[in-house]
């Protein structure tokens, strides 16, 4: 009996080690695919920019300052560089897409370069900084820390279904309620894209973002979503 259990334990240990290394390899490949871009993908990006009549700047020092104020960029900053900056017009609104690179802990160890892609659409309506995203465990703690530097606080709208699905962090509670009450809240609750697209309202800009490189096939999808959000935003805030 003891020999049988020893055999089972040894087999179990080998299976655990194999599963661990298998998971590590899968995660490494996923991160590599997400954070790298082939020459063909870059060419597709430039072709889309040209076909749309947009402009592309490979390296743009200081152009990230306007979009500081929250994830994935710093809360504040001066001369923040961004790359692959695309500027133009989409559905009658000014747009900007770009990559932002930072350093942090990743599967490859400390000081790994983390690339994030940001999409921004300009609106005629100005909204004080407000973030709408999927809830995370440390949101309230992080919001309290951010509040020390003007980062806002967690706000619950009083709609149990909405408050369960989304976390709202804002500087101005009255404005947040005015923006999210009515058509926009219903849109976010019913549109499946909302689950995967965090939003940051900041002045006349509305932003969404994700980890990874900027690719041509993502751009119109993300910009369409941001424009749809703005179409449901109250005209007067």
Question: Any overview of this molecule?
Answer:
About 7% of the residues have low confidence. By secondary structure, the chain is α+β, with helices and mostly antiparallel strands. The protein is globular and about 70 Å long. The longest helix has 34 residues. 40% of the residues lie in helices and 31% in strands. The chain has 7 helices and 7 strands. β2 and β3 form a beta hairpin. Strands 1, 2, 3, 4, 5, 6 and 7 form a 7-stranded antiparallel sheet that branches.
The percentage of residues in β strands lies in 25-35%
Distance between the termini: 74 Å
Shape: globular
Backbone structural class: alpha+beta
Q: Could you state the order of secondary-structure elements as H and E?
A: HHEEEEHEHEHHEH
Task: Name some characteristics of this structure.
alpha+beta, seven-stranded antiparallel sheet, 237 residues, 40% helix
What does this entry show, briefly?
It is built from 7 helices and 7 strands.
Secondary structure elements and their pairing?
Layout: H1 2-35, H2 39-52, E1 55-60, E2 82-90, E3 93-106, E4 109-133, H3 139-147, E5 153-155, H4 160-165, E6 167-170, H5 173-180, H6 183-190, E7 199-211, H7 216-231
Antiparallel strand pairs: 1-2, 2-3, 3-4, 4-6, 4-7, 5-6
């Amino acid at each position: 009996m003891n020999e049988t259990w020893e055999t089972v334990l040894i087999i179990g240990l080998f299976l655990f080690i194999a599963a661990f290394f298998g998971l590590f390899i899968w995660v490494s490949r996923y991160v590599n695919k997400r954070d790298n871009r082939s020459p063909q993908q870059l060419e597709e990006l430039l072709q889309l920019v040209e076909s749309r009549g947009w402009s592309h700047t490979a390296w743009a020092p200081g152009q990230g300052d306007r979009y500081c104020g929250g994830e994935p960029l710093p809360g504040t900053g001066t001369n923040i560089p961004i790359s692959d900056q695309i500027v133009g017009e989409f559905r009658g609104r000014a747009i900007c897409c770009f990559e932002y690179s930072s350093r942090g802990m990743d599967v490859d160890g400390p000081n790994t370069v983390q690339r994030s892609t940001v999409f921004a659409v300009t609106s005629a309506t100005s909204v004080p900084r407000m973030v709408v995203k999927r809830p995370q465990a440390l949101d309230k703690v992080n919001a309290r820390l951010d509040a020390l530097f003007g980062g806002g606080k967690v706000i619950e709208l009083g709609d149990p279904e909405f408050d369960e699905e989304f976390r709202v962090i804002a500087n101005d509670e009255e404005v947040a309620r005015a923006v999210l009450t009515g058509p926009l809240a219903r849109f976010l609750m019913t549109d499946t894209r909302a689950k995967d697209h965090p939003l940051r309202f900041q002045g006349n800009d509305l932003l969404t973002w994700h980890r990874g490189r900027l690719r041509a096939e993502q751009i119109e999808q993300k910009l369409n979503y941001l424009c749809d959000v703005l179409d449901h935003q109250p005209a007067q805030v």
